[in-house]
Amino acid sequence: MKICLIVEGCYPYVVGGVSAWVQMLLRQMPEHQFLLVSIGAQRRQRGQFRYEIPANVTELREYFLDEPLGREPGASGRPLSAAARQALLDLVQGTAPDWPRLFEAFGGEQPRPVEEFLMSEDFLALARGLAETTGRNTPFKDLFWTLRSMLLPALELLRCPVPEADVYHAVATGYAGLLGAKFSYFAHKPLLLTEHGIYTREREEEILKADWVPGYFKPTWIGYFRALSQAAYRQARTIVSLFQGARELQIGLGADERKCRVIPNGIDISRFAAIPPLDPAPHPLHLGAVLRIVPIKDVKTMIYSFHRVKAARPDATLDLIGPYDEDPAYYQECRDLIRRLGCRDIRFVGRADVTDWLPKLDLLLLTSISEGQPFVLLEAMAARRPVVATNVGACREIIEGAEDGLGPAGWVVPVMSPAAIAQGILEISRTPATLRALAENGYRRVVRYYQDKDFLSAYRALYREAVQTQEVREPWQASALN
Questions:
Q1: Is-annotated flag, keyword Transferase (predicted)?
Q2: What pLDDT, on a 0 to 100 scale, did the predictor assign at position 313?
Q3: Rounded to whole angstroms, how far apart are CA atoms 346 and 29?
Q4: Under 8 Å CB-to-CB from 39, ≥6 apart: which residues?
Q5: Do residues 252 and 273 share a domain?
Q6: In terms of domains, do 359 and 289 share one?
Q7: What is the span of the domain harbouring residue 141?
Q8: How far is the C-alpha of 359 from the C-alpha of 382, rounded, in Å?
């Protein structure tokens, strides 16, 4: 089987949980061929791979949001139809656009040159239409340039040629889901969608906090990304999330509940079999976190929390295990914070094999403000290490279980709450016996629910069902496009 896997903002350029998931999928399915389509943020990432590409990846296509496609002739000079103009207006207003109209106009046999469109009367009419509706109270100049920056990457991606495959699999909504929907639409082949985090919610959180988006454009950007998600939700044959709470969010955002199913992440627990249990004798408290030093991991809250722990446990140490070169400015801010607090015994380890470090830890921390189903928690639990994590994504389900009777594997804390995080650390580390009991609960939960063999078996079945079942086209796909 030939599978076209479409990823955005992760593999093979960025180390992290989604990239690790992609690498596992590729390596553990040697019976299939994969054509990888990777959407990166900046063209300078081209060829800068952080992973060794497996042999069963027959082709890797790289596209970047800051790099236009070639300027080959398209439907130059031909005005958009009224229906296509309305579809664009619906997109930027955050309502339900007629995606087939846009697929055909910008991604069909004669794709419209995007730069030409953005200089055309059609685009000016679009800007005016928005100015007369949801943009009435915004400066027209700002609205005009915001629309350009909003539409340029999406419409450029629609020009990407359709690769031949038996099934298309997008590992997010957003731009990856848009491209997957376009490929599936023209190839008449099934699309599968997997969301690790809920892309629309993640973009909403970023936009609300972003300084570069004026307040009066925040609803426009949020609505735009919600509309993008509909392309993948509508076209997908199956929509996968990692836990039940995420499935409910997808349905709330417009996904058909009949398509939605849950497949948890899985890990190879044999990697951690040689790690000894925690030392039962009293000893200094060694904390650790496996993470990228980036804002979404909220490393500053972790530092503040450890500073509080250090006041009660002067013997405590904290190792931050993972790359710190992705966001140098944030890394420096973290170092400056440590210096201002005068907090000792925090070490930035850099990239490392987690199996070399977990034996040294008594407890693993995660203070992220957004997660899906973190591999680092599963790996710590497989190594018989308790965890303290913020209540994001599937963290509570992983740590406390879904009424499985196994008991907690650690402590769940509020986001951005150094006092609560420090309290959780101090509570569960009062005695080695408490740490060991929580660790055993976590180990039993991983063995029961989160093994890679189960995750891989579920995806093999999904791929098999997708190609064996006659694809039923949605009504919106069959609309007349003449």
A1: yes
A2: 97
A3: 40
A4: 6, 7, 8, 9, 63, 64, 65, 157, 175, 176, 179
A5: no
A6: yes
A7: 82-147
A8: 11
